[in-house]
Fold this sequence. Notes:
Chains A, B: It is found in: Cytoplasm. Chains A, B: InterPro entries: Metallo-B-lactamas, RibonucZ/Hydroxyglut_hydro, RMMBL, RNase_J, RNase_J_2, RNase_J_b_CASP, RNase_J_bac, RNase_J_C. 2 copies of one chain form a homodimer. By secondary structure, chain A is α/β, with parallel strands linked by helices. Chain A has 16 helices and 25 strands. Chain A has 3 domains: about 45-240 and about 405-480, Ribonuclease Z/Hydroxyacylglutathione hydrolase-like (Metallo-beta-lactamase, Chain A, 4-Layer Sandwich), CATH 3.60.15; about 245-395, Metallo-hydrolase/oxidoreductase (Rossmann fold, 3-Layer(aba) Sandwich), CATH 3.40.50.10710; about 490-589, Ubiquitin-like (UB roll). Chain A has an 8-stranded mixed beta sheet with strand order 7-6-5-3-2-1-19-20. In chain A, strands 8-9-10-11-12-18 form a 6-stranded mixed beta sheet, covered by helices on one side. The first copy, chain A, has a 5-stranded parallel beta sheet with strand order 14-15-13-16-17, sandwiched between helices. In chain A, a hairpin with a 6-residue loop joins strand 9 and strand 10 (about 185-190). In chain A, helix 10 (about 345-350) packs across helix 11 (about 375-385) and helix 15 (about 540-550) packs antiparallel against helix 16 (about 555-575).
Amino acid sequence: MSRPAGRRDRGRSRRDRSRPVSVPVDAENPAEPELGPPPDLPDGGLRVVALGGIGEVGRNMTVFEYAGRLLVVDCGVLFPSEDSPGVDLILPDFRAIEHRLDDIDALVLTHGHEDHIGAVPFLLRQRPDILVVGSRFTLALVAEKCREHRLTPRLHEVKEGARVQHGVFDCEYFSVNHSIPDALAVAIRTEAGLVLHTGDIKLDQLPLDGRLTDLGGFSRLGDEGVDLFLVDSTNAEVPGFTISEREIGPVLDGVFHRAPGRIIVACFASHVHRVQQVLEAAAAHDRKVCMVGRSMVRNMGIAAELGYLDVPDGLLIELDEAMTLPDDRVVIVSTGSQGEPLSGLARMARGDHRSVRIRAEDTVILASSLIPGNETAVFTVINGLTRLGATVVHQGTARVHVSGHATAGELLFLYNAVRPSNVMPVHGEWRHLRANAALAALTGVPEDRIVLAEDGVVVDLVDGRASITGKVEVGRVYVDGLAVGDIGESTLGDRLVLGEGGFISITVAIDATTGRAVTKPTLSGRGFSDDPKALDAVLPMVEDELSRTEAENITDPHRVAQAVRRVVGRWVGETYRRRPMIVPTVIAV
Amino acid sequence: MSRPAGRRDRGRSRRDRSRPVSVPVDAENPAEPELGPPPDLPDGGLRVVALGGIGEVGRNMTVFEYAGRLLVVDCGVLFPSEDSPGVDLILPDFRAIEHRLDDIDALVLTHGHEDHIGAVPFLLRQRPDILVVGSRFTLALVAEKCREHRLTPRLHEVKEGARVQHGVFDCEYFSVNHSIPDALAVAIRTEAGLVLHTGDIKLDQLPLDGRLTDLGGFSRLGDEGVDLFLVDSTNAEVPGFTISEREIGPVLDGVFHRAPGRIIVACFASHVHRVQQVLEAAAAHDRKVCMVGRSMVRNMGIAAELGYLDVPDGLLIELDEAMTLPDDRVVIVSTGSQGEPLSGLARMARGDHRSVRIRAEDTVILASSLIPGNETAVFTVINGLTRLGATVVHQGTARVHVSGHATAGELLFLYNAVRPSNVMPVHGEWRHLRANAALAALTGVPEDRIVLAEDGVVVDLVDGRASITGKVEVGRVYVDGLAVGDIGESTLGDRLVLGEGGFISITVAIDATTGRAVTKPTLSGRGFSDDPKALDAVLPMVEDELSRTEAENITDPHRVAQAVRRVVGRWVGETYRRRPMIVPTVIAV
């Protein structure tokens, strides 16, 4: 990647490129701990705060404030990783705007992926009449999601090219391509300047639906002068260019051609164009298609109804019917591409699917990315399928997936089209943000005009200059089962300890007046050892300790419990070198 | 990869290659459940059983039996993944040979990686005088490991080219290259035939130490006739060829050239040639090197002492001295390339390392693979380092790592050199084994001569034909802290439940004769909720239930406990839709 020539203006200068670009950590860097609450926003200034999505991949939500009013772009969920065990979803932290929900002029959704719309119902629960703005397909998915939450959102459909005033925010929408149809970028005009937010974006030059990312439109914005450019960082570390989604088609065709029996394709339930290509390969090879997985059936139903998915007549059948056809006439399109243990595909891999038994002639295609953190789950599925004899094709062995996010080469096109005065990388972990910042700098954006602002860091655009002015508290809001927000670091810390070492409980009743143990202590371990005698040796020590506390006239159950905890904890550390949670319960009777 | 021309003999035939190779699942396939204990081994037959390492990556251990005697090849550990939480190590299951330890003629170690030697002390604890055979470097690492376990092994050093009779087994050793020096393949001759076991292998044609994999020797074995070929499957899914380790050097050199400040290189603590190249780059750029991490210091000390690592005079310094030098004169070589949370590198990334504070000018190189399952940990380290401003170079962004295992193209060379009658893929998960089997078939090995035998599956070589004859029980033996084998599926299952949902304990004392509760029930949750009132609503229900059990004259503490468990379990499911472990303790006083 060499730096393309181009106009350079608005205070930008060429820099020495003999050394690799590194964005210096300065006093404004959020890694420094001293950031406090921001000052009042000066008149005519625009404030930007991410409540999720910067410093992480997921739960994207960015709040823009101008003249006392708020515009929210996206409201997604983050799927938990091993550091938040047992949790179902992680939401953006709404606290910074909870007291100002009435100030929201609109919630703009750039596209319909869960990490951009998944938290919408949770926000609407707090103020149901927020105006929700998005493209036709995005809003169809949101409406369905809200229906499941028994909410009726106020929807406002926009198309690329539309320019709409939402309260004080003058918003213009641009087509972008991504791994879901009908994605939009949004330009936000206020007196403070022109801001462009890419949403999730790629630059597929031969998109399956012919809907190009509007680079010309971005260039016109660049001519007008973009004061702040918020740019998708997901693939900034990846050099070069992503091949076109269209190139998956011939690969699928080749796999279909060679498959002797059934074909099972797993992909994301919202990837309409991927499924479109599967349908076309199926039709070309005279196979019928059945879809399995609730979200796949639902989303493809919506996509077909709205015309985003073109389904040849008679191609789709139900699974029951598919089971009656010859194997080489069948394609099953399924969820479960990330190894989700409850998905149809994982059940097939374990041999416990309700209807589908994997056989040696089956070909399984994982036409999807492998999201970091899911490797073990995905490989477990692949191993299960191959153990049963199936041929498994995945992105590690064939080009059956392309990413939906612009790689470094494409991002350079964006920077050179937009020529922004200030840049704020969004959507990514720190490694992605820095890589994106380095690309911006390569195209000539001065390093002090690139703001690396993780969740909660306040960026103010004042007099054409973006700078970090403070930080609001942004934590993680966990959804576990039906409850939102009752789980925090204490509970998760306990889960991590329990998950690593289990616990040992010691229960004893003491006489409330003498402190004498009136029962033999009950010792019990869970998640500690399979050996039923594992705790036998510590029982006499506990009894000795209880004799001691009695002798010292200790009658406070808490103090007795502490003494017992100490004895058991020391013993288990010395004997086993393990750290189970020690849970003493002392009842005074 | 097209199939090279070559001699085809020993019952092998060309096959139709117009369709992709799939190895059929037949009645012998271990995925079929009906395999039972094997019959007696016929006279003159050779039996092969893996006690670890097939169907998984790690804890390699293969047992060969001939004429009532045993030869063991490798004895390694498996590092636990998320399905075995809290465990330190997983050992091969020795049960199948535990009653026959005196029959072992030798334990042959192909090389010094933990997944090949890590369980040696645990086997020697059961019979300390087993003859341990290996190359010089391998034995040096084993001796050090045994010293830490206070064991003095009986060592027998061999070199490539050596042919040694170990009891009834006539063993010949061949040089192979891998990601550690001094690796060996072993050919085992008995009256049953000639078996070749690759160990871990690659075909670097320009190895840093000039020590080539002895393809010519393999070819001579092929001329003699290899009856069974056990082949490393790790990279069988990866098409093409691995570049030479030597090509890392110029990449390191380029990174060193551009690094403005300190350089920190993390790699595997046994990767002598990788470290060698770091030392050379450091010397070329006038930097001193200090090593941190216990295993790095230990292994490189051994390697230097034995002449496997060439350390220029005065190059190595201690960390204290390094801290006094200018930043651009320092290289730190560290462990922690897999994101291990207690490693020096992870501490630096979190900002809590004892001496090293990461700064914006630092360059960190992860010169290592990313082992599946470690992604989250490694990316956490990379994000931490980049957040602090460091430039991080890793295999995703530069060619700073090459694999130590033969990829598909190299494996074809092996098959074509050896021309085996029977093939048994080893070292790999099912996806790797099948990919390896497909390569063997492509070179002309008949599909019914390729045995896919996971751990415990018994393969007998009789009359020149290898076939599956049964299965012995092979489980996972877990080491957690000081104890070996007391943790099983029950404990791990409890840990998984506790790690996902925590527990709710309910403790109550009842009168032993009336069943009346003599205390108010104590309810307590750990890992359940941060909300101190989370369990308040269920207390009256528990009290009601206790009144009911009292009214029914139930005095058996177990029955009362069951009743309480039911009430709390139902309530928490309905109220929270969560599944914590419910732990009632009822004491009769």
